């Protein structure tokens, strides 16, 4: 096997281990990866976005997002409102409880990063991030996809 391929194996192993640890923290607050991702992306692209924009940011299909949004609404973490002047366009907003939960999710994520990246040279981390972004861009190009908005 070429050493160039070791990057993919290491990235997969790192992702799998990090996902398990992150998942344990999320479980303690009654969240899943999918639900947490929706909250994080809603903050990233801004409240009042619509389902299409949020699905694009998450890189998932709108029907998949609809299921996650229904769960978040049931948990009273988000609410949807019709966009003024647009009958079929719904905007998504955090509830007060949703904002508190988002803070918890970000705390869990930041604690995980602090633990896993402790002792890593910031220059090495920046280089690794640059390499992974380049590989991701190549994956999008090879698959004919466009980067999320």
UniProtKB/TrEMBL annotation:
InterPro entries: HTH_MarR-typ, MarR/SlyA-like, WH-like_DNA-bd_sf, WH_DNA-bd_sf. Transmembrane segments: none annotated. GO terms for molecular function: DNA-binding transcription factor activity. Residues 4-137 form the HTH marR-type domain. One of its GO terms (biological process) is response to stress. This is HTH marR-type domain-containing protein. It comes from Marinobacter fuscus.
